Amino acid sequence: MARYKLIIEYDGSGFVGWQRQENGFAVQQALEEAIEAFSGETPRVFGAGRTDSGVHALAQVGHFDLLRETTTDTVRDAMNYHLRDVPAAILQARIVDEEFHSRFSATGRSYTYRITNRRAPLTIEKGRSWWVPVKLDAEAMHEAAQVLVGKHDFSSFRATVCQSDSPVKTLNKLEVERDGEHILIHAQARSFLHHQVRNFAGSLKKVGEGKWTAEDLKACLEARDRRAAGQTAPPDGLYLTGVSY
Amino acid sequence: MARYKLIIEYDGSGFVGWQRQENGFAVQQALEEAIEAFSGETPRVFGAGRTDSGVHALAQVGHFDLLRETTTDTVRDAMNYHLRDVPAAILQARIVDEEFHSRFSATGRSYTYRITNRRAPLTIEKGRSWWVPVKLDAEAMHEAAQVLVGKHDFSSFRATVCQSDSPVKTLNKLEVERDGEHILIHAQARSFLHHQVRNFAGSLKKVGEGKWTAEDLKACLEARDRRAAGQTAPPDGLYLTGVSY
Predict the structure, then answer these.
(1) In terms of C-beta density within 10 A (0-12 exposed, 13-18 middle, 19 or more buried), how is residue B209 classed?
(2) Coil, helix or strand at residue B211
(3) Which residues belong to CATH 3.30.70.660 in chain B?
(4) Rounded CA gap, A217 and A232, in Å?
C-alpha cells in the first residue's frame, strides 16, 4: 500500500464544492473517478478543506491510498489525463507516510479573497472575483482587519450550518492590499469556520465603503452574533491558496 | 449628433469574434444591440481591431454616433446594463470629435500573448491562456524575438485570409517575460497582419523549446513564406491590451 498526497487546482464554478453530494458533481468525485479510471481501485480522497460550491483552489491538498503502488509521475499524469474534460488538475503527487492525513495533519490554511473594484461589470473575470462597483478604501480595510487577528470567538462570522466544535479560532493573518482595480484579502489560520473568510470579506467591504469603522468591526466581533456582521460575500472571489503541514 | 469613443473589455470565448457574422454572436452585434436597447437608434459600431473568435480584449476601442446626444455616464451605464448577460463591458465612454475614427485614427495597437508553461493542464485559466507543458526558455525567446522588431515583410507570419494591402509592417516592440508559471509576449505596432501575434507566439514557442535558434527565426522571417514559420498559437492566450491615437 502507498499513500499519495496531491496538490490540486480547480475552478470552483464547475463543481458543487469539494465534498461528494447527491445534487451535482463534486471535486472529490471527479478525483475518485480519475483514480479508478487509471488504477481500477476505488479509494476515498480526503481533502484539507471542504470548499463550497463556486470556491476555487490554487493548491488544495488531498490524500488517498493505493493497494498497488505506482510512481507519482504516473499518478499525476494519469489523473490529469482522466480529468481532461473537468476543470480540476493535479499540480503535484507525492508518496507520504501513512500517518499523513490531508485534513488532520494540516497546521495551517491560506485563503485569498479577490474583489474587483470598478464601475464596469466583470467579463473575463466573471465567476473568479467579486464585483464591487462602489469605491473601496483598501488601507482602511487593512487597518480595521487587524482587530480580527488573534484568538477570538468568531461566532459573528460563522455560518449557521457550521459543524465546527467551537467558534473559537486563532486568526494568524488578515491582510488587505490593492493591486490596480483589484483588492486582495489574505487570510491565514490553522483552520476556519464555515464561511468565515467570505463573512470577513462582506464585513470588510462595509469598512471599505466607509459605512463601518474599525471600532464597528470590533463591536461586530464582540457581539458573537452572525446578525451583527456584514453579508456573506459570494464564493466567486474565494481561493484556497495553500495548506501547510 | 455626437460621436462616442468606447473602451471595451470582453472575454473572447463568448463570441465569434469582433465582427458581425452570420454564424454566431459577435462583440460588434452585442454592442449595437445594447445601444439600440437604450437609445432606440441603430448606429454601426466601428472597432480598432477585428479580433478573432476566442481572442480577448482588455481595452478594445470602438466608436459610434448618436443623433440624440446623451451623457457619457448614461452611455456607459446603460450599455453595461443591457450587456449584463454578455461577457463584454464598457470601461469608459467619451465624446470625441467627429473626425475621430477608432480604426483609421489609431496610431498603435498593443497585444499580449499569454502562455501557461507547466505540466498540469489549465483549470481556472482554461480558455484564457495557451497551455504549453514543455519547459520554455523565456530569455531565449526574448532575445530571438528582437530579430522581428523593425520594418519587415512579415509574409511568414501572415494568415492566408489576411486582407491587408501589404505584408510590410513596422513592429515597434516584441518582449517576452516570465512571470512565475506564465510567459507573456508583449507586441506593439501601428497595425498587425491577420494572425501575426499568434504566429509569432507559435514560432517563439519553438525557440523556447530549443528547437529553433534566433538565426532560425531570422531565416523564417526572410523566407516570406507562411510555411516557414511555426504553428498559429490558439486564440485563448491573445489579449488586445490597448490602442493609441
Answers:
(1) middle
(2) coil
(3) 108-244
(4) 15
ipTM score of complex: 0.92
Grid cell in block for residue B170: 513596422
Contact B123 A89 (CB under 8 A): yes
Provide the 8-state DSSP code for A231.
P
DSSP characters over A56-70: EEEEEEEEEEESS--
What residues of B are in contact with residue A87 (Cβ under 8 Å)? 123-124, 126
Q: Nearest-CA distance from B90 to chain A in Å?
A: 6
Closest-CA residue of B relative to A78 is B120
Residues paired with A47 in a beta bridge = A62
Per-residue confidence at A224, pLDDT binned at 50, 70, 90? very high
The domain at B108-244 falls in which architecture? 2-Layer Sandwich (3.30)
CB contacts of A241 in chain B (<8 Å) are none
Three cell numbers written together for A244: 501547510
d(CA A156, CA B181): 39
A-interface mutation test, from B8, B11, B124, B134, most A Cβ less than 10 A away: B124
Nine cell digits for residue A111: 485563503
Beta-carbon separation of B89 and A56 below 8 A: no
Start-end of CATH 3.30.70.580 domains in chain B: 2-96
User: Bridge partners of B66?
Assistant: B2
Sign of CA dihedral B213, B215, B221, B226: negative
Q: Which residues contact A124 (CB under 8 A, 6 or more apart)?
A: B9, B10, B11, B56, B58, B87, B128
> To the nearest whole percent, how much of chain A has pLDDT over 90?
95
- B9, B120, B121 ranked by CB distance to A123: nearest: B9
With H, G, I as helix, E, B as strand and everything else as coil, classify residue B163: coil
Instruction: Say if residue B163's pLDDT is above 90.
Output: no
| Confidence (pTM) | 0.95
Give the CATH fold of the B2-96 domain: Alpha-Beta Plaits (3.30.70)
> Dihedral of CA B163/B165/B168/B172: which sign?
negative
How many whole angstroms separate alpha carbon A132 and alpha carbon B150?
43
CA-closest candidate to residue B93, choices B106, B76, B70, B79: B76
